[in-house]
Design brief:
Helix content: 10-25%
Radius of gyration: 21 Å
Number of strands: 18
Largest sheet: 8 strands, antiparallel
Length: 365
């Protein structure tokens, strides 16, 4: 059952949508980590709570701004923002705890990684590789199809059909709950961050038990052997929402992109070379996504998504990162946000990159 969501924006943490029933002053303190939050309407006028701390008659068609009392300046002046990067972690933790208290999962069993949630051939192959003492790389390579030899794009099957179906249903159920929904990244408007929903341990286990073996072999020069964190999210494409995704690269060392469903036409992905390797920029590879297909690729393998033509496509994206690789290649990364810098290429183009940040910038497949 869907409900009207109220959209809130903050100069510190970006925007979220929350059902009106969860909106009161105490919850604004928790969700935005402001000691004394002020709620402003689209004209910048104060929206005051009643004696119980509740906000009445909020309009779902408007965007409300949440600031702290300490940010208030003179009339007509912009709020004074003291940006402290550490607050983003506190906000993320507070929102996850808020969701944990209020959300009742539809399919609790999929929150813990078990072999039955994965493709049986994938599981069997990894077990055989481990039994070999992790010495015979050919065992893992046997289930991968090399799509682009020069840039290292591989396709395979990773998840079971039942898991794909249940994860779609879980995301839909979460979005209908009215709990805080963050944009999955700075480019996609529709989807959900899976760690917010409680899947953090699932993807940590997936990395440690399965992904790290492939990444160490496929991408040793891109931190594949030292992955230690992730950002997992769902993106949704449909004619009434996001239809496509612009050309970009990911804020990851290694990315997994898995098509969960539903039924759709169009929406193919296109790839065009590695960010720092101009010799690969003439690459023009198109991959038609289909239910059950997963892709391994280097995070800065430039790509985009063509228009979906009918139906609805859900993809699970996991950005895997290596703190060791980033420390050793710190000159490539933005000191402010930790993401790779934008690069100007010889063809004069600039390409968007995506951030993990729990807040939105004004700006995967």
């Amino acid at each position: 059952m869907s409900m009207d969501l109220i959209t809130f924006n903050s100069p510190i943490s970006g925007g979220i949508k929350v059902a009106a029933k969860y909106i009161n002053k105490a919850n604004l303190v928790e969700l935005f980590q402001f000691e004394d939050p002020l709620l402003l309407d689209h004209e910048g006028e104060d929206v005051n709570p009643n004696e119980k701390g509740e906000y009445e008659n909020l309009n779902p068609s408007l965007v409300y701004t949440v600031i702290d009392e300490s940010m208030v300046t003179g009339p007509g002046e912009e709020p004074q923002i003291k940006y402290d990067r550490s607050i983003l972690g506190k906000i993320a933790d507070a929102r996850m705890n808020f969701i944990k208290r209020h959300y009742k999962p539809l399919h609790p069993s999929i929150y813990t990684l078990t072999p039955d949630l994965l493709d049986p051939v994938f599981v069997d192959t990894v077990e055989k590789y481990k039994a070999s003492g992790c010495q015979h790389k050919a065992i893992l390579m046997s289930i991968l199809t090399l799509e682009t030899p020069q840039t290292g794009l591989f396709s395979f099957r990773m998840f079971s059909d039942e898991f794909s179906r249940k994860l779609i249903e879980e995301v839909d159920h979460f979005q209908d709950s009215g709990l805080p929904v963050n944009r999955p990244n700075t480019m996609n408007r529709y989807g959900a961050i899976l760690d917010d929903m409680g899947f953090e341990q699932f993807f940590t286990d997936l990395r440690e038990q399965y992904v790290k073996h492939f990444a160490a072999i496929l991408y040793p020069h891109y931190g594949g052997a030292s992955l230690d964190s992730h950002h997992a999210f769902i993106v949704q494409y449909k004619l009434t929402g996001d239809k496509k995704l612009n050309f970009h690269y990911d804020d990851s060392e290694v990315t997994i992109n898995a098509c969960l469903g539903k039924e759709f036409t169009g929406g193919s992905l296109y790839f065009s070379g590695l960010l720092e390797d101009p010799e690969t920029h003439t690459e023009n590879y198109e991959c038609q996504m289909k239910k059950g297909l997963s892709l391994f690729h280097i995070g800065h393998h430039r790509h985009g998504a063509n228009n979906i033509l009918s139906g609805e496509r859900y993809n699970l994206i996991v950005w895997f990162r290596s703190s060791k690789y980033r420390a050793e290649n710190h000159h490539l990364f933005c000191k402010s946000c930790g993401s790779k810098h934008k690069h100007s290429h010889s063809d004069g183009e600039k390409h968007d990159h995506e951030h993990k940040h729990e807040h939105s910038h004004s700006d995967d497949s």
